[in-house]
Amino acid sequence: MLEDAYLNLAKFILENGQKKEDRTGTGTISYFGYQMRFDLSEGFPLLTTKNVPFRLIKSELLWFLQGDTNIRYLLQNNNHIWDEWAFKKWITSSEYQGPDMTDFGLRAQNDPKFKKEYLKQKQIFCEKIIDDENFAAKYGDLGLVYGSQWRNWKTSTGEAIDQIKNVIHTIKTNPNSRRMIVTAWNPEDVDNVALPPCHTMFQFYVNDGKLSCQLYQRSADVFLGVPFNIASYALLTNLIAKECGLKPGAFIHTLGDAHIYLNHIEQIKQQLTRKPYKAPKLWLNPDKKSVFDYDIDDIKVEGYQHHKTIKGSVAV
């Protein structure tokens, strides 16, 4: 099964990982250095042992590919996976006059009354982002995150580099190159973004008419984040392969600090009791030629059979 690579990762960390403190204060079971490989010819690697909302994955990737860094586009597409980082920017500003939201991530897990108030304040925040363009410009922008680094990397001379356009051009014109790399990790910008890039760099490889991609991810939230990352980079590989007239090859996912948060242990164990279904198939609108031309409805998965959702809180 295509999904076995992920399930084996989860088992491996439970059996071999060690407890480790982390920035969020939640605590993890962690293992350093692990690699998974997915053959994209076997199907699309969207996990089936729990429901993974593909609409969120595709809208986030399109957001990256547009070079956008403001969550307004995501909220307009009912995507809330980046809310917490923008919300933190708002509640720590001098303009925020609402109830105390300090450490809202941890407090919401342990205090039902606080969680209700937190969700209320976050809803107010999200509505203001959508309705007020000036407010969105001030508090919805996350800084130099993926979209900016991929499409608008700032150089020391004040110019900008579009890494995605450049790598596509190289795949088309010099497919044997070993320099087909996109990086999101800029040491100068690490302290000026809402969340320093977790998926730091990726490299493409062309052989036998197939396009493969390897991602290095410095920090990997195995329960919540990694299922999204697998599907997102598999989708990106398929999109670029299609534009370049290639078939999708393999997606190789290399993890640095691979961890399961302590408040996700039971969820992971529950997931591991489930038998995976056959992987779905990816459908891309055949009329779209460039990766920059796709809309939400141009990307679909077909035959996605899955088990029920398993919820878990995001550590911020």
UniProtKB/TrEMBL annotation:
What Gene3D superfamilies does the database record attribute to this sequence? Thymidylate synthase/dCMP hydroxymethylase domain
- Taxonomically, which superkingdom? Bacteria
Which residues are dUMP-binding?
23, 178-179, 218-221, 229, 259-261
Where found in the cell? Cytoplasm
| Pathway involvement of the protein, from the record | Pyrimidine metabolism; dTTP biosynthesis
Name the SUPFAM superfamilies for this protein.
Answer: Thymidylate synthase/dCMP hydroxymethylase
Q: Name one GO molecular function term.
A: thymidylate synthase activity
Q: Which GO terms describe its cellular component?
A: cytosol
> Which keywords does UniProt give here?
Cytoplasm, Methyltransferase, Nucleotide biosynthesis, Transferase
Domain (Thymidylate synthase/dCMP hydroxymethylase) ranges: 5-316
**An individual GO BP term:** dTTP biosynthetic process
Annotated PROSITE patterns: THYMIDYLATE_SYNTHASE
Q: What is its main location?
A: cytoplasm
Q: Indicate the residues that form the catalytic site.
A: 198 (nucleophile), 198
One Pfam family hit: Thymidylat_synt
Report the EC number(s), separated by commas if there are several. Answer: 2.1.1.45
Q: Where does (6R)-5,10-methylene-5,6,7,8-tetrahydrofolate bind?
A: 221, 315
Membership in a protein family: Belongs to the thymidylate synthase family. Bacterial-type ThyA subfamily.
HAMAP family in the record? Thymidy_synth_bact (MF_00008)
Subunit structure comment from the entry = Homodimer.
* Role played: Catalyzes the reductive methylation of 2'-deoxyuridine-5'-monophosphate (dUMP) to 2'-deoxythymidine-5'-monophosphate (dTMP) while utilizing 5,10-methylenetetrahydrofolate (mTHF) as the methyl donor and reductant in the reaction, yielding dihydrofolate (DHF) as a by-product. This enzymatic reaction provides an intracellular de novo source of dTMP, an essential precursor for DNA biosynthesis.
Q: What is this protein called?
A: Thymidylate synthase
Protein source organism: Fructilactobacillus lindneri DSM 20690 = JCM 11027
Q: What is the lineage of its organism?
A: Bacteria, Bacillati, Bacillota, Bacilli, Lactobacillales
